Amino acid sequence: TDDDTFSNVFCEKSKKLINVHLFALAAKYYSLANLGVCTPLEDLLEALRGDNQGTTDVKTDEFMNNKKSHEVQVMSELVDNIANYCGIKQVIDIGSGKGYLSSFLSMQYNLKVYGIDSSNTNTNGAHERNRKLKKHWRAYQSRGRADLKSQRLEKANDRPVESEIKHKAINEKPLNDSSLQSQDQVTIQDLVPSCDFTEIATSETSKQTEVDLVARTQSDESKLSEEVLALLNVLPADAVEVFSSSQSNCGELCKEEKAQRKMASLKAKASKSSESNLYFPLTSCITAETELSDIITDLEDCMMVGLHTCGDLAANTLRIFTAKPEIKAVCSVGCCYHLLSEQFENQEDCPEEVWGFPMCQYLKDKGWCCGRNARMSACLALERVAVGQMLPTESLFYRAVLQVIIEEMYGVTKSDRHVGKTFSKSSSFIDYVRKSLKKLELDDSKLTDSCIMDYYEKYKHRMNELEAFNMLKVVLAPCIEVLILLDRLCYLKEQDNIAWSGLVKLFDPVKSPRCYAVIALKKQ
Fold first, then answer.
1. 201, 151, 122: which is closest to 364 by C-alpha?
2. At the fourth CATH level, which superfamily is domain 20-135+276-379+477-522?
3. Secondary structure class of 222 (helix, strand, coil)
4. Which of 33-37, 107-111, 182-186, 403-407 has the lowest mean pLDDT?
5. Neighbours of 336 (CB within 10 A)
6. Structural domain boundaries of the chain?
7. pLDDT computed for residue 88 by the predictor
8. Strand 112-117's sheet: what is its strand order?
9. Which residue ranges does the record annotate as region Disordered (predicted)?
10. For residue 288, what are the contacts with CB-CB under 8 A and spacing of at least 6?
11. Which stretches of 256-322 are assigned E, i.e. beta strand?
């Protein structure tokens, strides 16, 4: 497109929006789906697998909601393929939460998974959840074997024995780096999209090498069989080891705790040498300076994963990946952009501090800043709105009028306190305002009910205006997300030790709006 195509979106003098249709077209043009910079998931899986096609699908929705089931199913298959490609069996799940992804990777794909979360509640919750599920292990295992046997009999062809032997050989074939490199390294390099990222990571970034293509999306929604339900998300009787750091802060572990942890790890390894599919929930706060070997005493060649790592955790996951030679690959899906720390937001000169944005040198040199409003907008879900899941206009209106009240009646323009989810707990606008003022530690007795309702009536006619404004924010949301994700990708492109990196759309954005993964493989 010509540089002038979108020049008439805003008035040159007033800078006001004058062409909504052109604004929407421009936003679509600069979205990730349209830029031609993503690697299709099916292309990546094909390159990673080579001739080894696929695994047995397992039903995941018996223990998870639809959204989580979709995410875990798709991401775990990709992680397994990356692990096989790199010839590794250890996975570190950063921000593992309740352990859905970790336990599934452990059981379905026979990987040794360390799930690290800063919340002791989450770690204990993951342990308790698995403890309850383990009660059903034997029943599911028997049912799974029976289902598998009956399906094999039904599907038997003229050469059933040879077919079964071949299937076993594929699953058990040992991987070695040399064969992987010689067979598949070229293929993985071919996945780099049409625009040249070596330029993007340098001063050439200013040349907008954008291709006007509609992104190739995949519906990786295959019909799932129930044949091995037992392998879903359930652990055998003694497959869980829980280690919880007594220090929930980010400080270093004391020598005694390191020694205790090492002994516990060695005992666990000795007692479960026959169990390769282990899941270890751990409690620790992860920063860019985290020394993984202090948390995981038997750290070996591994890969890092993160399913919806919040705020700076997504950026720090990539930093740890590039810094630690043991970590051979990373697959990270971030979220909560509004919680990112920004180097240039407050114009503070803290060169030594590690920030969530920007990561790449190009945007650092530009002193680029998004600001909280833009980051909040990046969290909105355009695809959900597009299918009729409308924005909560009334709650947004309540919050906007509240802002006017606290500024005019209390003189407050900035506060460290938050209103939170007060709307859903309020019976009326008056109730909402009073509860919110209490949360903000402001005296609500100086406001009468009639005064509060006067504010409501004064701005009620502008509710449609507010809705239109928020719809414009939703339309712009993908463009801001693009900036944050390309910053992370460019950071990886700037590193010398990475063989391939890319952005991959993993999930259906209606089910899971934060659907893009940043993926990278180290040079062997």
1. 201
2. Vaccinia Virus protein VP39 (3.40.50.150)
3. coil
4. 182-186
5. 17
6. 20-135+276-379+477-522, 391-460
7. 95
8. 243-244, 279-283, 112-117, 90-94, 302-310, 327-335, 516-522, 498-505
9. 154-182
10. 315, 316, 319, 320, 354
11. 279-283, 302-310
